[in-house]
Design a protein that fits this description.
Elements (H helix, E strand, L loop, with lengths): L1 H24 L11 E3 H11 L3 E11 L6 E10 L6 E6 L4 E8 L12
Antiparallel strand pairs: 1-5, 2-3, 3-4, 4-5
């Protein structure tokens, strides 16, 4: 019974999120953010040392300069601590710089229905 209630709650949450997202899609979005950047070894010491996060996956990505819109290609790594639930998304540049794109808490594997 608790799993059924959880499944219903997740479904309602997804429906509400989808409806909200569809309404928001009508508006153009522009986020101008500030990212903490450090040499890769210093960023790694914080993510792996302090927060005990480990790499979950890696890929390639683009970050865009706020003022000019110029794209910068980087490697991207997603780190997680499966015990504490913390996570970090980091861009890694060829000059040895690492920038924190985003981080947060409550990481957990998605166990809901497949999204088609």
């Amino acid at each position: 019974m608790p799993n059924l209630i959880k499944a219903i709650a997740v479904s309602i949450s997804l429906l509400a999120t989808t409806a909200f997202a569809q309404e928001q899609e009508k508006q153009s979005k522009l986020f101008i953010t500030q990212q903490a950047c450090d040499p890769v070894m210093e960023m790694s010491a914080i993510i792996v040392g302090k927060y005990k996060e480990q790499p979950l996956f890696q890929g390639s990505g683009l970050q865009f300069a706020a003022r000019t819109g110029q794209p910068y290609q980087s490697g991207v790594m997603f780190f997680v601590n499966q015990d504490s639930g913390t996570w970090s998304l980091v861009s890694l540049y060829s000059d040895g710089t690492a920038c924190m794109i985003a981080n947060g808490t409550e990481f957990e594997p998605y166990t809901g229905p497949r999204i088609e």
